[in-house]
């Protein structure tokens, strides 16, 4: 009797720590987001230019860096195989069900997203290669991020 309860707790408890931030900046377009693998996006970026996608990877931020990298252990983790993430103040992201912004100072700290496994929804720009033109391309108009 205890085993099924423990299994259910494990199955449903995995999403408890997930934080989802959303923006309504793309609502006017009613886009359909294509869920694609990170490698597919990087290898065929021009095919997805100006399309709305959902992709998962490891987000890395640093001075002059805002990028999504492949989170596979066996992938190329160089900047040339990363996607520039173009967060824009015109698309503010709020914690689902609140007015707590992703980049707002809250409860004495900022929400930490560096080196986190994230899922992002936004529009691909194959021509924007990010800071110093180092990246494969960009995702802009970010309307969803789950950490």
Notable characteristics:
mainly beta, single chain, globular, 147 residues, five-stranded mixed barrel
Short synopsis of the structure:
Helices cover 12% and strands 31% of the residues. It has 147 residues and is mainly β. It is globular and about 40 Å long.
Write structural notes for this entry.
The chain is mainly beta. It is built from 2 helices and 8 strands, in the order H-E-E-H-E-E-E-E-E-E. It has a 5-stranded mixed β-barrel. The longest helix has 12 residues, at 2-13.
Mean pLDDT: 86
**Secondary-structure element pattern, one letter each:** HEEHEEEEEE
In whole angstroms, the N-to-C terminal distance is: 33 Å
Q: Work out the helix count.
A: 2
The level of helicity is 10-25%
Spatial arrangement of strands, main beta sheet: 3-4-5-8-7
Write down the overall geometry. globular
Quick one: how many beta strands? 8
Low-confidence regions = 1-15
Q: Output the structural class.
A: mainly beta
**Which value, in Å, is the CA radius of gyration?**
17 Å
Main sheet specs: 5 strands, mixed, barrel
Strand content: 25-35%
Task: Please outline the helices and strands.
Elements: H1 2-13, E1 20-22, E2 34-35, H2 38-43, E3 52-62, E4 65-69, E5 83-85, E6 94-95, E7 116-125, E8 137-146
Parallel strand pairs: 2-3, 5-8
Antiparallel strand pairs: 1-6, 1-8, 3-4, 3-7, 4-5, 7-8
């Amino acid at each position: 009797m205890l085993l099924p309860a423990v299994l259910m707790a494990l199955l449903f408890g995995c999403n408890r720590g997930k934080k989802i931030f959303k923006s309504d900046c793309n609502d006017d377009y009613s886009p359909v987001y294509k869920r694609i693998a990170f490698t597919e996006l990087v290898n065929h970026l021009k095919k997805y230019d100006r399309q709305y996608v959902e992709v998962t990877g490891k987000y890395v931020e640093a001075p002059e860096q805002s990028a999504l990298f492949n989170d596979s252990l066996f992938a190329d983790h160089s900047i040339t195989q990363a996607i520039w993430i173009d967060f824009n103040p015109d698309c503010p992201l709020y914690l689902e069900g609140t007015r707590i912004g992703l980049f707002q100072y809250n409860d004495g700290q900022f929400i930490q997203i560096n080196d986190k496994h994230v899922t992002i929804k936004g529009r691909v720009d194959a021509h924007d290669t990010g800071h110093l033109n180092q990246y494969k391309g960009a995702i802009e108009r970010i309307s969803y991020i789950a950490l």
